[in-house]
Amino acid sequence: MDVKKSNRALTKRKSSCHSTKIIISIFLLLLIPLLIHLQAAPFYFFTAPTSASRAFFNKWKGIALDTSNGPAISKNSGSLISKLRDSVIFLPLKDLRFAETAMDGNTWFMSSLNDTREVNEAEYLYFPSQASKGRLLCIKGRHTKDGTKNSYALAWPEALPDSATLMKGLTFVSDTYYDYGNLWHGLTSVAPFIGWSIKNECLKPTRWVLFHWGELRYEMGLWLQHLMQANFGDVNIEGFERGDGPCCFEKAVVMRHNEGSMGKERKLQVFDLLRCNARRFCDIRQETGERGEPVIRLMLLLRRGSRSFKNTTAVTDIFARECAKVEGCTLKVAQSEDLSFCDQVRVMTYTDVVTSPHGAQLANMLFMDRNSSVMEFFPKGWLELAGVGQYAYHWMADQSGMNHRDGKVGHNETQFADWARTVLKQVRISKMEMATGSTTNKPQPNSIASKC
C-alpha cells in the first residue's frame, strides 16, 4: 500500500515538473517575438514609450535575462540573448530617399530616428536614453565615398551584435552637409556640441566620429581642431580601425543639423565660451580699460584666391587715409593664410573693426570682443551666384554679438572712403559713450562666458 502511494506521489511530482517546463517553454516562445518586435520597432517611431508599456517591457526583460531562477531559466536566457543579438537591424547611414532634398528639412542621416527638441537648444539624439529604450548606438562601416555603405543600429548592452566593439566614454557623432575644413562650415557643425556640453555640466567627449553625407571623415581642419582642443582638450577622431565589426558606444550624442534650431541666447553663450577658452589656450590676456581718448584698432584682414583684392596697396591706402583722420585710430594689415591659430586669436583679440573680403577668414571675428564691428567686401559679380551664402557672416556677427556694417560690392575708391569714414565715426562715438558711462555699462566679454 505504501509503495502504491509513493509511486502515485512520484508520478504527480513528475507531472507537475513536466507542466512547469511546458509553461516556461510557452512563456519564452511568446516572449521572444515580443522582444524582437520591440528591438526593431523604434527605427520607425523613435519616441518615448508610455510608462505602462515601459514598465511591462522592463519587468519581462528582467525576468528573461535573470539567471537566479535556476539552470532552466539560465539556459533559455542564453538562447534569448543570442536571438536578440541576431535581431539587431542595421540600416544605411545615408537614406537615398532624401538625397535630393536634404537641405529642405529632411533627415537623410539616421533617417529613421527622430531628434530630441528642447527650447533654445540644437536638435540632438542621445544614447542610451528613454527614447532608445536603454539601447546603445552601433555604427558599422568606414566608407569615405558612399554613405549608403555605412550603417547604424540600436542594441541592448546585454546583446550587442556579434564581433562588436564596445567603446567606453562619451562619443560625439557629427554629420554635416558641408565639411570640416572650412572655418565657417566646420564651426557651425561643432557649435551644437558646445551648447550641449554647456547644458550638461560641461561634459567632454572621449572621441569624435565625423561624417559628411554619411561618409566617414578622418580629420577636421587645423583651425577647428585647435578651437576644439582649446575647449575640450585632446581631440581624438575615430577611424574605426578595429576590424570590420560594428562599434557600439557606451554613450553617444549625435548632431546632424548643424546649429539648426539653437536659439540666439545659446549661440551667444557658445561663442563667448569659445572666445574665452581660445584666449586662455593661446595665453592671451585682455587689456585693461583705456584712459583718455579711445583707441580704435582697425584690422585689414586679407586673403588669397579669387576673392582677394586685385590691388591690395590701393585698398590699404584708402583705409590708412581714413584712419589717419580719426583721433586714436590705428591700422594693421594681416594675411590670414600666414597666421597660425594663436596668431589669429591674438590679432583679432586686439581688433575693434575688421575689414575683409567675404571668405572663411571672417570666422575669426569669433575672437573679437562683443560689440566689435565687421566690414565685409563682396567681389563684383559674386552676389549673383552666392545664394544664401552671402549672409553667412552677417548671421555669425549677430550670433556672436558683433555689429555687421553692411557689405560693399566691387572696388570703388570713393565708396570705400565714405564707408570707412562712416564706420570709424560710429565706432568712435560708441567708444566715447562707453568711456564716459558707468562701469556697469561697459562691455565685459569674458566675464559673461559660461564657466567650463
Judging from the principal axes of the Cα atoms, what is the shape? elongated
N- to C-terminal distance: 84 Å
Taking all residues together, what is the mean pLDDT?
82
Structural class: alpha/beta
| Rg calc | 30 Å
Count of DSSP-assigned helices: 11
Order of helices and strands: HHHEEEEEHEEHEHEHEHEEHHEH
**Unreliably modeled segments:** 1-7, 9-14, 38-57, 438-448
Counted beta strands: 13
Question: How many domain modules?
Answer: 2
Largest sheet, strands/sense/barrel: 8 strands, mixed
Please report which band the strand proportion falls in: under 5%, 5-15%, 15-25%, 25-35%, 35-45% or over 45%.
15-25%
Helix fraction bin? 25-40%
Q: How does this structure look, described?
A:
By secondary structure, the chain is α/β, with parallel strands linked by helices. It has helices spanning 2-40, 51-65, 71-86, 183-199, 222-232, 264-281, 312-324, 341-349, 383-386, 392-400, 413-436; strands spanning 91-92, 125-127, 136-140, 151-155, 165-176, 207-212, 215-217, 247-255, 296-302, 329-335, 353-357, 373-378, 403-409. The strands form two sheets. Strands 1, 2, 3, 4, 5, 6, 7 and 8 form an eight-stranded mixed beta sheet that branches. It has a five-stranded parallel beta sheet with strand order 10-9-11-12-13, sandwiched between helices. The longest helix has 39 residues, at 2-40. It is elongated, with a radius of gyration of 30 Å. The termini are far apart. This is Glycosyltransferase 61 catalytic domain-containing protein. It is a single-pass type II membrane protein. InterPro entries: Glyco_transf_61_cat (IPR049625), Glycosyltransferase_61 (IPR007657). One of its GO terms (molecular function) is pentosyltransferase activity.
